[in-house]
Structure formats: structure tokens, C-alpha cells
Amino acid sequence: MMHATRAIIDLAAGCSHFVPMSVQTLGEAFRLGWRARARCLVTGPAPKSRHDRIAVFCDTVTELDMKTLVWTRGDRFPLDQLEGRLKCPRCGSRQIKIIFSVPGSPEAQSQQKRNGM
């Protein structure tokens, strides 16, 4: 299924593509305390729409357990191959995006403040 729109996370203007990838495996990310979320966003033309409206068919986000990923995939599993190995349990799509949260990053610090940590 082709997507008529793309999530903000997928747009080049919405994110930085300059990420120093010194951490390349699940084991390294786990030891450094990284967190991971998976997102499935399936969109397409709205049924019975005469105005080319876009409908969201699946918008699922879930936290991935890093310990379970290391146990099931191995500590040397490459981070860049993780997206291709996941499937949305709600809609069955394999077009999954992984969002990593790095401890000490501005996003992680603001999330800790929101959670009262």
C-alpha cells in the first residue's frame, strides 16, 4: 500500500540526518541505557471522499523492551536492521519506524521532567 502522506518523523525537514553512529548494535545501546519506541503510521486516501482527504488507518506507538530485544536478536544485532524485522501487531504493516531516546539528550531530559523523575 502506498502512503499518500508521510509522518513528520519521515520528513527530511522534520529531523536531522546527522547522527554520529558510534553506537551500532543493540548490545551497545542497551548498555548505554537507550530506550526505543516503534511507530506504525499507515495512511491513505479516505474511502468515499471526494476531496482527496487522507485517512489514518493505523497509528500505533509502543515502547520496545531493550532487554528482550538483546535476548531475542543478540547483542551484536545492528541497529539499522531492526526496522526491517518488526511487524505491526495491529495492522500487519512492516513499514515501522524506530525512535531511539538517548540518555542525556534534550528530549530525554524534558521527558524525565514531564514524568517527575
Low-confidence stretches: 1-6
The overall strand count is 3
Instruction: Count every helix, treating DSSP H or I runs of 4 or more residues as helices.
Output: 3
**Which structural class matches the secondary elements?**
alpha+beta
Could you estimate the helical fraction of the residues in percent? 10-25%
In sequence order, what are the helices and strands, one letter per element? HEEHEH
Mean pLDDT: 80
* Shape estimate: elongated
| Percentage beta strand | 15-25%
| End-to-end separation | 41 Å
How do the strands of the widest beta sheet line up side by side? 2-1-3
Radius of gyration, CA atoms, in whole angstroms: 16 Å
Number of domains: 1
How many strands, what sense, and barrel or not for the largest sheet?
3 strands, antiparallel
Structure description:
The structure is a single chain. By secondary structure, the chain is α+β, with helices and mostly antiparallel strands. The protein has one domain (8-114). It is 20% helix and 24% strand. The chain has three helices and three strands, in the order H-E-E-H-E-H. The protein has helices at 26-31, 66-73, 106-114; strands at 35-45, 54-64, 96-101. Strands 2-1-3 form a three-stranded antiparallel beta sheet. The longest helix is centred in the last third of the chain and has 9 residues, at 106-114. It starts with 25 loop residues before the first helix and ends with a helix.
